[in-house]
Amino acid sequence: MATDVKVPALGESITEGTLAQWLKKPGEAVAADEPIASLETDKVSVEVPSPVAGTLSEQLVAEGETVEVGAVIARIGEGGAAASSPAPAADAKTGEGQATVAGAAVNPVGAGENPALREDHDAAPADHADLTLSPAVRRAVLELHVDPSKINGTGKDGRITKDDVLLAAKGKDSSPAQAGVQAEAKASVVTPATPASQPSWTPASAGERHEERVKMTRLRQTIATRLKEAQNTAALLTTFNDVDMSAVIDARAKYKDLFEKKHGIRLGFMGFFVKAVALAAKDVPSVNARIEGDEIVYHDYLDVSVAVSAPKGLVVPVVRNADSMSFAEIEKAIAAFGKKAKDGTLTADDMKGGTFTISNGGVFGSLLSTPIINPPQSAVLGMHRIEERPVVKDGQIVARPMMYLALSYDHRLVDGREAVTFLVRVKEAIEDPTRLLIDL
Asked: Residue 109 — pLDDT band, cuts 50, 70, 90?
């Protein structure tokens, strides 16, 4: 008797999602609670587990289709072998189906891969055909021409991450013979039809011009909607300042080894900035408030949304009660969210709420920006790259590691004086971290 696999609850106010990827094929054995599919919602990716042990006998939904909570998407048969049923028919627009690359199950044209990077891998080991790879990892495997069956995964449950693939490719490229094989393989690539879900650009001969239409992911659509909502609703304004990072850099250099030895986590810049924001918000509570109807809601706590870059877009998991956390607790929470974002395991609860946002564009090399607030929050602090610049200290021109800070805020709630005061308080705390210890 077959058991139905239904779409689980996806979080508060989320009623549907998109079936992003099948992790198991019809005929494959599955264990109880083993993920068989990945769903993409407005906020996060969610894995659908098998309710029982058995064999995936039927897939009822094609990749790319929208499914509602509670909908049946597959059936699990009894025993270790089941009547293999064909995968969902290829959609005329997206062309779903499945193929294998380097012994790993992947999606063909229309399922997020670049067909121009596809090769003939008939010689790949057959006993590794049950590997499950995320879209980002599959793409890296195709681009770098590595065999995932020979990679030891460091992700959740031993899954292969993109960094694992990059590391394997780096080791492989160090071999001259292998480099020659790779170059020959690249030369034999044949470019088929244009995919529907991922851009693929191939060298064009003189005079050729190409366009490609790619459907926005559900997450990207939500990001676009929320950013435009912020612009349409809030009276956005940005004020800037710069901060001398010398004291923080010296503190990190002096205590980083002891800190990591005691707490098992590296001491980063974000811990200092979260603590500085918590201190400044006590003096300027409006930046940590929100507008609700004709009322202003003030918070006596600080839940910091930390902008994190994920494979499918920017996400903002929330470090709750950051004002009462230690440096180590803050750094551990941020590191955990970064890993979950990278692995695609963030949940809706991880990103729910938040009273203030910190975005660090400096990790990507940004010198200056005007960040957009995350509604219904009223302010966001933008950090940027650190670079040595000439500044005047005690009448002398000296080089100092400087960072530009940007505070974007809702002018309906936060006045210019308050915004400047808040930013100066953050600057003072970063330039003299002792203030963070004595609450000054």
From this structure: very low
The single residue listed with the structure tokens 């890993």 is 339
Condensed to tens digits (0 to 9), the pLDDT of residues 343-366 reads 878 887 888 889 999 999 888 889
Tokens representing 118? 């596809």
Long-range contacts of 237-240 (CB under 8 A, 24+ apart): 237/408, 237/409, 237/411, 237/416, 237/419, 238/370, 238/371, 238/406, 238/407, 238/408, 238/409, 239/406, 239/407, 239/409, 239/416, 239/419, 239/420, 239/423, 240/368, 240/404, 240/405, 240/406, 240/407, 240/423
Task: Name the fold adopted by 3-187.
Answer: OB fold (Dihydrolipoamide Acetyltransferase, E2P) (2.40.50)
411 given a catalytic annotation: yes
Tokens of 54: 């058995």
What's the pTM?
Answer: 0.60
| Pick among 3.10.450.50, 3.30.559.10, 2.40.160.10, 1.10.3720.10: CATH of 218-438 | 3.30.559.10
Choose the weakest-confidence range: 11-25, 106-120, 318-332: 106-120
The residue ranges of every structural domain in the chain are 3-187, 218-438
Give me the catalytic one of 349, 415, 432, 439.
415
- Between the two ends of the chain, the Cα-to-Cα distance in Å is 68
- Residue 88 confidence (pLDDT) above 80: no
Sheet of 99-101: strands edge to edge?
99-101, 104-106, 131-132
The answer to whether residues 105 and 132 touch, using CB atoms and an 8 Å cutoff, is: yes
Q: Where do we find the tokens 């564009």?
A: 361
Cα dihedral value 417, 421, 422, 426, nearest 10: 150
Going 192 to 194 to 195 to 199, the CA torsion angle's sign is positive
Which residue among the candidates 120, 210, 411, 432 is catalytic per the annotation? 411
Concatenate the DSSP letters of all residues of 215-262 into one string. PPPHHHHHHHHHHHHHHHHS-EEEEEEEEE-HHHHHHHHHHHHHHHHH
Distance set, CA 87 to CA 28, 72, 129, 135, 414 (Å): 12, 15, 16, 18, 55
Instruction: Give the integer Cα–Cα distance in Å for 41 and 134.
Output: 16
Among 278-282, 334-338, 405-409, the range scoring the smallest mean pLDDT is 334-338
Give Cβ neighbours of residue 106 (< 8 Å, ≥ 6 apart). 98, 99, 100, 113, 133, 138, 141, 142
